[in-house]
Amino acid sequence: MESIFVTTPNKTYPILFEQSFELLADSIKKQNITGRKMCMIADENTHQLYCEEVKKQLEKVSENVYCYCFSAGEKYKNLETISRFYEFFQQNRFDRKTVVVALGGGVCGDMAGFAAATYLRGIPFIQIPTTLLSQVDSSVGGKTGVDFNGAKNSIGAFYQPELVYINTATLKTLPKREFSAGMAEVIKYGCILSNDFIHYLENHKESILSMQHDVLTEMIRQCCLFKADVVSKDEKENGLREILNFGHTIGHAIETIFDFKMLHGECVALGMLAVLELAVKQGNITQYQLEQIRELLHYFGLPLFVSDVSKEKVYQQMFLDKKVNQNKIRFVLPKRIGEVYTTSELSEHDIIKAIEFVVK
Ligand code: GLY
């Protein structure tokens, strides 16, 4: 399948779509980053599943392949883990040419990318995303970082990889709940950029759920096309890229409150529903369109509401987010399905109302 390119002011890099790791070495050769030390960073799950296979590929282009394995999970996405990465890098005398290879989901990619962005002021890195969420979103576009003091992704850097290598076969080993979480980000693209894509998802939902290869790959590729286009126009989120935060303002707050017992995509699903409900009240979308999206989220196993938390707590938590500017919270809201706008002017009353739709 044809590659997609992300073009930013300082770098152009490809996103590749494959069904195995067999072409990884060749892809690295094409990027001219061979003959260097390579450090694979994996969590314990991806380490066990894919490390050997990926290592074999890396050994075709490097005589010194290292592997660092860390504990899986959002609760380890912090500066302590990054410190351990740096220690490993130093112990093995990694230099500016060393290539970091992130093998895993969003947590792994964000952290390996951040370590690569900051070690020696920046060394090259490759993304090999193995979850649906990381394949359609986090591995593309150069957002790297960690959580800090209860604030999600609040320490980080924009730092683009040399290459994103997507092996869709890795989705076969993905737990069902993780697949569902990824579908929230997939549905997000339809809400913000294309009603046609929502129809595509509706028309192919059975094939997607049963992981029919062609449909799944086409869906992932379409998401990467959407994302590459947005990032190429606004790498550092000075404007347009904000639309990718659709559903994230309320979603991040819920995610943090539940101390990462809920998955990111599950919280994004709730955040999207909250603002879609608000959009119905504002007359921007119809109740029918809202039900269509709710039905899709439900079909893919995503939560439609959450209990055991107060709406006030969610509201307060939102002020800790990066999307707060001069104490005003930035929202991405639907104009219609497939088009959104951003605003800081939502009243406290409207924000609480939006939260109420999903916090029961
Ligand atoms: N996940 C949102 C972004 O990459 O901008």
How would you briefly describe this protein structure?
Helix content is 47%, strand content 19%. By secondary structure, the protein is an alpha/beta fold. The mean pLDDT is 96.
Question: Helices, strands, pairings?
Answer:
Elements lengths: L3 E4 L4 E7 L5 H7 L7 E6 H16 L5 E6 L8 H13 L7 E6 L1 H13 L6 E5 L2 H7 L4 E6 L2 E8 L4 E5 L8 H18 L1 H9 L1 H5 L3 H21 L14 H10 L6 H18 L5 H13 L11 H7 L6 E2 L2 E2 L1 E6 L2 E5 L4 H11 L2
Parallel strand pairs: 2-9, 3-4, 3-5, 5-6, 6-9
Antiparallel strand pairs: 1-2, 7-8, 10-11, 12-13
The structure holds glycine (GLY).
Structure explained in plain terms:
The protein has 360 residues and is of the alpha/beta class. 47% of the residues lie in helices and 19% in strands. It contains 14 helices and 13 strands. The strands form four sheets. It has a seven-stranded mixed sheet, with helices on both faces. A hairpin with a 2-residue loop joins strand 10 (324-325) and strand 11. The relative contact order is 0.11. Glycine (GLY) is lined by residues 137, 141, 143, 241, 244. Glycine (GLY) binds at residues 137, 141, 143, 241, 244.
